[in-house]
Amino acid sequence: MTEEQRPAAEASELEALFPVSYAIYAMARTHRAIAAAQLSRLGLFPNQEIMLIQLAAAPDGLSQKVLVDALKVSHPTVAKTVARLEKTGLVRRRASDEDKRISVVSLTAAGRRLHDDVIAVWRGLNEQTVAGLSAQETAAFVATAQKIRGALETAAPPL
């Protein structure tokens, strides 16, 4: 049987072979789908809300380089997200006072107003995510997830 004819591995096979990686993948996929549905009601795509939250914490704005580092994504991803948010009137770009080559991004009044709705979505999603867990299980999950993330970030090449 050639590679093109071979069926894709079934989820149960992936889960059996790679239980930790599959659990992370399946949970992240489900979490992202729920977040996407809720964020779409606000006119946002997943990950745009993370940028809005970062910008809300910086009233004077952030450079796109700082956003790249904070969000751990590539510069083209930040540039594309900023352009989309700018087009919808949620952020604005201006040249830095210190260096005109640097673009500083900040929230508009509309972006600041949307921030509270974004936080409400994340609060609800967090509550939904841990609904079946005790406080102890939640703390253990967070500690384990942080440990795994640390190991992955140590092993991962920089963006």
UniProtKB/TrEMBL annotation:
Source species of the chain: Microbacterium kribbense
InterPro entries, A to Z: HTH_MarR-typ, Tscrpt_reg_MarR-type_CS, WH-like_DNA-bd_sf, WH_DNA-bd_sf
Span of domain HTH marR-type: 17-150
Pfam families given in the database record: MarR_2 (PF12802)
Alphabetized UniProt keyword annotations: DNA-binding, Transcription, Transcription regulation
Protein name: MarR family transcriptional regulator
Keyword DNA-binding attributed: yes
Presence of keyword Transcription: yes
